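Example 427.
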Amino acid sequence: MEKFVIRGGKALSGDVVIGGAKNAAVAILPATILAADKCLIENLPCISDVMASLQILSELGASIRMISKNTYEIDTTHIDCTEVSNELSRQMRASYYFLGALLGRFGAGQVAMPGGCNLGPRPIDQHLKAFTALGAEDSVEYGMIRVRSNHLTGGHVFFDTVSVGATMNAMLAAVKAEGQTILENVAREPHIVDLANCLNMMGADIHGAGTDVIKIRGVKELHGCNYSIIPDQIEAGSYMVAAAITKGDVMLHNVIPKHMEPITAKLRAAGCQVEEFDDSMRITRTGALKPLKIKTMPHPGFPTDMQPLMTVLLCLAEGTSIVTEGIWENRFRYVDELIRMGASIQVDGQVAVIEGVKQLMPAPLRALDLRAGAAMVMAALAADGVSEIDETVHIERGYENIVEKLQGLGADIRRVDTPVNAVTRAM
Ligand code: EPU
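Predicted structure in complex with EPU:
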């Protein structure tokens, strides 16, 4: 077990290279199953969710060759198993993408039924609705969800709610289904477009990704490809907040400024200066932070995964901010940690009202989930003194080398081993 020890109060400056997008990678890796061939996937972030996906592929029968830390060759030709074990599928929430990919290639797939999570209920009814529209049946047995079909055919799906996961799973299942599939009211996140681009490079026929209607004409076979994953919008946004909260000056490399627009717009409104270049961005802050109203929404709205990070920033704004969570039922649990640092926040259901304070005080903190954990890092970077963050395993699930990257920007942060009983006592 590890914790982060952070001495805050230093302005961050310098350059940071953003890694590949976690939420694209966890769908593109299962997608390689559909190729039944060799795929070279580049710009994979070196994080535990990616390692878990590679392990699942390997257990299903794929050959995996590491070319470099961020590039893997995956040969899915000889996959002969359609069941992801309970133990492996529970290592990561996004293991449900293996259902769509296995169903698309073999007409059958099985993973552990995802339960609720720290963010609230996590149903997959919309994923199953899409599979049913393509002619598949599903059943749940001993905690495992199984889908099967003797013959997948194109279908018309109007999603009841905009879901990133259901959109991508439907695409995975439909690319080889016979005939045309039309998916309406789909998610439009950059990672949806990335998955469509990757599948199209494998020979799929997908149009409309990035709009709210996706049309897929089923093809008989797909083939291998070389594909480089897009940069991670949320990792980039997190380093923007790190610069903003410490009154820093940071240049981000390997970013797509267009993908950052919902975040950039809010940071500018909060008083930060953001310059955009081809594949880099510079963020600085010199003046006071201004309060904001933010509501999280599906893309191109403000992303829910940035909500905890922006809330921390707004704790130090001059005035009252209102942050409304529009996606998840339970994404303000971390607020109690901030209150212990001197923040003034009132949460009523999905709405947080934040009265800006002059400073945050250091405190012992917990990373309750991935983005809440990243938000704690931001708070600790701003607080004048030493804070310790426990349960950092959640943070490392989604941020490649976060400690090293922050050190590169001048932050005083280090990883320290925690004896297991010390953590248990703290809880
Ligand atoms: N929903 C349903 N039924 C479904 C699917 C979703 O009601 O069948 C609801 C959810 O309960 C939620 C909303 O629809 O209220 C949106 O859920 P979505 O399916 O879009 O979320 P997801 O695909 O499970 C991905 C990211 C999350 C991110 C959300 C929203 C991955 C692996 N996860 O989850 O990322 O918050 O989209 O953008 O792609 C994170 O990276 O920290 C993270 C939690």
